Amino acid sequence: MTATVQPALDGSVPAPRTTAAQRQAEDYETWLAEVWPKFIAAAATGRTFTCYEIADAHQLSAPPNPQAHWGRLMTLLREQGYVRTAGWAATNRPTAHHSGVRTWKGTAAARRAAA
After folding, report:
1. Domain for residue 15, yes or no?
2. Which of 3, 34, 40, 73 has the largest CB neighbor count within 10 A?
3. Cβ contact 50:102 at 8 Å
């Protein structure tokens, strides 16, 4: 079944909207280049956050393999000293039904890198 688009009153047809949930990166390296600076900036604030909060706030595209690549991103950030684990929280991702997710907090190294 195809969704129909309602024309505007002036007869023009609006362009289809592409949401972050619909966008998916073609390859891992391209996706990493897109999301890395956003997560470094989030870590530099020193506040506690979840992956979804940052991805949603910046409308980041999904990685080629979402089940593996979000975790790999956070592992890389932790290994390079930008973030540390902060605990657990219930996610606000609409499709996750308030599941428990890891929270992250930026380190002093992340604050220095942003300066």
Report:
1. no
2. 73
3. yes
Asked whether residue 106 is assigned to any structural domain, the reply reads yes
98: left (phi over 0), alpha (psi -120 to 50) or beta: left
pLDDT tens-digit readout, 72-112 = 999 999 999 999 999 998 888 777 677 888 999 999 888 88
Eight-state DSSP code of residue 60:
P
Q: What angle do CA 57, 65, 26 make, to 5 degrees?
A: 80
- What does the pLDDT read at residue 3? 59
In the structure encoding, which two tokens stand for residue 99, read together? Answer: 């599941």
The domain containing residue 80 runs over which residues? Answer: 28-114
Tell me if 102 is assigned to some domain.
Answer: yes
CA 75 to chain centroid, in Å, comes to 14
First-to-last C-alpha distance (Å) of the chain: 52
Give CA–CA dist 29/63, Å, rounded.
9
For the segment 36-63, what is each residue's pLDDT rounded down to a tens digit? 999 999 999 989 999 999 999 999 999 9
